[in-house]
Write a structure and sequence with these properties.
The structure is a single chain. The protein is α/β, with parallel strands linked by helices. It has two domains: 3-230 and 429-451, Aldehyde Dehydrogenase, Chain A, domain 1, CATH 3.40.605.10; 234-418, Aldehyde Dehydrogenase, Chain A, domain 2 (3-Layer(aba) Sandwich). The chain contains 15 helices and 22 strands. The strands form six sheets. Strands 12-15-16-11-10-18-19 form a seven-stranded mixed beta sheet, with helices on both faces. The N and C termini lie far apart (61 Å).
Length: 453
């Protein structure tokens, strides 16, 4: 039986080792999850609400414990880790309070005496999740799935198995029945067999494009619903009439929080040429002020990246872009898994930091002269997760929003996820939606009921 070793990316020290589950153990867990589904789907919304609120309470009560595991395993600065746990409690509370309303029968007038749509759970849903937000990514799937009457089965990234087991523990501590939510300690090569298991009814993945394509292909061959939330290369579009001070602060937060390791981070900064010099100078001041260091220190904003190979990938993208003509303004150096906050200017559409997703603390600056050019530059991406527009002319920005090929447009704000709003992308950023009423209806049988006297 293979073993997975968890290492602290900041120190390199071994944290723990986990024995990967055998095929037999995985099959047994899925069998028990499937059996539990037929009980769980019969529970009332009131009972599910009580348990989900207990999960929220457990998250808040022991947020330091859960956050510490996150910081040790993937290097998230501890204050940001605690904020992530608190956000997980929020999504639990949101679906506890709103699931029943989101899944009410929808009456539709037809030739029938009575006709309506009933929203019913599918069964056990597999979630293949990444390491960058190791709790939030899971809870934004699990809270709606369980409140809808589905069962959750998690295959987490191998460097955050401690977080994965904690999530299973949270639901157990909250009082959920056994196998309502289960963690599988398995590798990526074992995912195909899990998707093919007839007792797994659907799959959701947050991760890279290649991983998404593989999972979608396997699900498709087995005629199973899938939802994909993949990469992003969000643009921060700064028009000349923006509030420069506020916009600089927002752009720094959008690019560098979570050490830049976010699908919705603002990775490409597009600035009106007439203000680019002033804006860039103010931006560099703020970037220099970012405190980098031990992720366990409360004043650290930039921690280590999650793995050394990920920092190496970013280093390669930055160096290739510099060789192609980009100008390095700050940063650019790597030491192990740590990568300095980095800003590049003179970036063109052909450079790696523009056309590829940069999953770390590197910001690429490109200028534009017209609105049309700004839209073209932003849309010149294989991704379509989100875009931020900064301007004092909000009415014009709202009109312009419909020209951007994105899953979300945020005006005078960074792109972020909110339990009340649908989240997801288009193009190679995936399909389907998480969160809000749209998220809870993804893994649902939308059943037509037609009645005549």
């Amino acid at each position: 039986m293979s073993t997975t070793v968890s290492r602290n990316p900041y120190t390199g020290d071994e944290i723990n080792s986990y024995k990967n589950y055998s095929k037999q153990k995985v099959a047994e867990i899925i069998d028990k999850a499937d059996k539990q589904f037929y009980n769980w789907r019969e529970t009332s919304f009131a009972e599910r609400k009580k348990l989900m609120l207990a999960a929220a309470s457990e998250l808040i009560k022991n947020k330091e414990e859960y956050a510490n595991t996150m910081t040790l395993e993937m290097g998230k600065p501890i204050t940001q880790a605690i904020a992530e746990i608190e956000k997980c409690a929020w999504v639990c509370e949101y679906y506890a309070q709103n699931a029943e309303k989101h899944l009410e029968n929808e009456v539709i007038k037809s030739d029938a005496y009575k006709s309506y749509v009933s929203f019913e759970p599918l069964g056990a849903v597999l979630a293949v999740m990444p390491w960058n937000y190791p709790y939030w990514q899971v809870f934004r799937f699990a809270a709606p799935a369980l409140m809808a009457g589905n069962i959750g089965v998690l295959k987490h990234a191998s460097n955050v198995f401690g977080c994965a087991l904690n999530i299973e523990k949270i639901f157990k501590r909250a009082g959920f029945p056994d196998y309502c939510f289960s963690t599988l300690l398995i590798g990526g090569k074992d995912v195909e067999a899990v998707i093919e298991n007839k007792k797994i009814k659907a799959v959701t993945l947050t991760g890279s494009g290649p991983a998404g394509a593989s999972v979608a292909s396997i699900a498709g061959k087995n005629i199973k619903k899938s939802v994909l939330e993949l990469g992003g290369s969000n643009a921060l579009v700064v028009f000349k009439d923006c509030d420069i001070e506020k916009t600089v602060d927002t752009c720094v937060q959008a690019r560098f929080q979570n050490t830049g390791q976010s699908c919705i981070a603002g990775k490409r900064l597009l600035i009106d040429a007439s203000i680019s010099e002033e804006f860039t100078e103010k931006l560099l001041v703020k970037v220099r002020e970012l405190k980098a260091g031990n992720p366990m220190d409360e004043d650290t904003f930039i921690g280590t990246m999650a793995r050394e190979d990920l920092a190496e990938d970013l280093e390669k993208q930055v160096n290739e872009s510099i060789k192609a003509g980009a100008k390095l303004l700050i940063g650019g150096k790597r030491q192990g898994a740590f990568f300095e906050p980095t800003v590049l200017t003179n970036v063109t559409k052909s450079m790696a930091v523009f056309k590829e997703e940069t999953f770390g603390p590197a910001l690429a600056i490109t200028t534009f002269k017209t609105e049309e050019e700004a839209v073209e530059l932003s849309n010149n991406s294989k991704f379509g997760l989100g875009v931020s527009l900064f301007t004092k002319d909000v009415k014009r920005a709202e009109t312009l929003a419909f020209q951007f090929e994105e899953g979300a447009v945020f005006i005078n704000e960074l792109v972020k996820s909110d339990p009340r709003l649908p989240f997801g992308g288009i193009k190679e950023s995936g399909y389907g939606r998480e969160l809000s009423k749209y998220g809870i209806r993804e893994f649902i049988n939308k059943k037509t009921i037609y009645i005549n006297k």
